[in-house]
């Protein structure tokens, strides 16, 4: 329980920020999942259309990660780690396809 007005206001601000950060992180996780599923779909059924979907989902996720770091929702190292995970997944999906095409 807050003892003065400034403490009450800080509680309200903290709650507002918590809700905003939660929605931002939720949207970020959704975009990351879309990218991972697009990579799986491209690996199972390759094609130009699938590749475009992978690239679009990757760029959308990268954009959201960068904005989250800029706003302060994520630490910059966490953002870099997530971008690295996404890049590795896309690279793996495309390299597996290239290896199966060579064989």
SSE string, helices as H and strands as E: HHH
Q: How far is the first residue's CA from the last residue's CA?
A: 68 Å
Q: What is the tally of beta strands?
A: 0
**Overall morphology:** elongated
CATH class: Mainly Alpha
Strand content: under 5%
Radius of gyration: 19 Å
> Helices and strands: which structural class?
mainly alpha
CATH architecture: Up-down Bundle
Q: Please describe the biggest sheet, giving its number of strands, its sense, and whether it closes into a barrel.
A: none
Fraction in helix: over 70%
Mean pLDDT rating: 92
Describe the structure.
The longest helix is centred in the N-terminal third of the chain and has 40 residues, at 5-44. Helix 1 (5-44) packs parallel to helix 3. The protein contains three helices and no strands. It has 103 residues and is mainly α. 19% of the residues are buried. It has one domain: Methane Monooxygenase Hydroxylase, Chain G, domain 1, CATH 1.20.58.
Write the layout of secondary structure elements.
Elements: H1 5-44, H2 48-71, H3 76-102
Helix pairs in contact: 1-2, 1-3, 2-3
């Amino acid at each position: 329980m807050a003892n003065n007005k400034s403490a009450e206001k800080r509680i309200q601000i903290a709650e507002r920020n918590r809700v905003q950060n939660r929605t931002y992180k939720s949207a970020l996780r959704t975009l990351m999942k879309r990218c991972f599923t697009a990579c799986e779909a491209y690996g199972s059924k390759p094609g130009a259309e699938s590749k475009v979907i992978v690239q679009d989902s990757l760029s959308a996720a990268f954009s959201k990660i960068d904005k989250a770091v800029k706003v302060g929702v994520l630490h910059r190292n966490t953002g870099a780690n997530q971008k690295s995970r996404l890049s590795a997944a896309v690279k793996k999906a495309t390299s597996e396809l290239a290896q199966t095409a060579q064989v």
